[in-house]
Structure formats: structure tokens, C-alpha cells
Amino acid sequence: MPSTKKIGSHSAANDAIGGVPTLHYFDFQSRGRGQVVRLLWEDAGIAYEDVRYSFEEFPDVKKNKISEWNPTGNIPVIELNGKILTQSYAILRHFARLLGKYDGKNEEEKYWADAMCDIAIDCETPFPFLLCHSLPSHSGHSIMYAPLTLSFLPPGRTLFIEAFFSPNKSETYPEHQKTTRAHYLSALETHLKSNGLSQQGPYVIGKEITYADMVIYQICHDENLTQDGRKGLKDYPRLMKMVDALEGRENVKKFLGSDRYLG
Fold it and tell me: How many helices (H) does the chain have, and how many strands (E)?
């Protein structure tokens, strides 16, 4: 059976979005794309209902309920006033617009938040060529041959999930850390250091937080870069500055120090 908890008290932010939303997501600690939605709600002071499914029970839930709401079978899924919301980043932008914050005040800021979010999405997305066997040909060159089958993993999996839960984790995860992760962290660091908006403050668009900051933060968190004194971010000082600012926000700080934060 899924676990269900009611979080927080009805606030002006709930009035702004039109009620108390229900989040359907995996019982996966405080990680993944569903957690980014929680993080925005926590920061905004939104009361919500948190429904968590174990990985073992999810196939039946997906077949009997989730797939009726979302034909892809992916979660998170949000219920709000009889409506169903799907696709995590669209969900974030939707709530940002309803709240009148978290996505910039003008087109330049909105574009830059969207662009940085897209880079983070690229960082997460398992491209087909990364999920294939590389086999040698008679000529000595490697060719891409057959897609890997990782059916034991949940839908909506990310590159981190692919590497971390691989049967060959001792090989795939260190390789992921050295290659894919390092490449995208470097790209994010460079953009944050060089963009004029990002130079004006700790966040993506400077002084005001956006949903994109939360997306980037969650990736860093899930990759265990925000823990252990930020030692995983020692080569990325601008990203560390953003992480520090986000974790220092009043409601986020309270959340991270509460029993709702599951690591």
C-alpha cells in the first residue's frame, strides 16, 4: 500500500494555485523529479498531500491507475481540483506561473531559466547511444549494436539511475562520474560564471530564485554532491554558491532539517 501524508497548512500560496495538490511519486527518499516539485512547494509554503509508491508495488499501480492519468505511465503525477498534471518540468513552470514567481520577470530571465533547465534535462536524459552495447567489427572499429535492457528500473529513469542501478555499478557509476556528469557540471558552471544575469547573484537569473535552480540543485543532491561538506562541488564554486543560497532559504532550511527530508 502506498504511504500518504498531509504536509503543511493551507496558505495564501494554496489560494494562488487553486487548492491543495496531491503528488504521486516513488518512495525514493528525497530524490528524483518528484522531489523537485516538493522542493518548490516547500519553498512557496504550499500545503500538499504526498503519496509515495514503493518500486515493488508501482507496476500494479501503473497498470491500474497511473496509465489512466498519464499514457506514458510515468510519474510524478499531480492531482489538483479534479485535474491531472503530468511531466515534471511542465508542472514546475505551471506552478511558477500560478504563483507569479520562480520563472523570471521578463523574457530574458524566463529564457535563461528555461535554457539552464534544458541543460539539466540533457544531463539527466539517457540518450539511446548511451544505452547500447558497443561491439567490435571485423574492421576493428566499434559499432553500436543492441540496446541494453534495464527492465528492472522504473520508468522515467535518468542517466544517474542507469549508472547507479546497473548490474555493473562498480564500473558504470565511476565512469558516469568521470564522463557524463563531469561534462554537464562543467557546462553548468561555465554558463553560471559567464552569463550576465547569473553574475548578478547566486541564482540562475541572479538575485531571484527560479524553478531552474531547484532542478539543478536536485541533480547535484541526487548525485551526492551537496553532502559531505560539498566536497563533490569543490571544482565548481559557482554551482556551490547556488547550492548554498538555495539551502539557506528559510523554508528550504526548515524542510532539510525536518523528518520530511529523507536523504
Answer: 12, 7
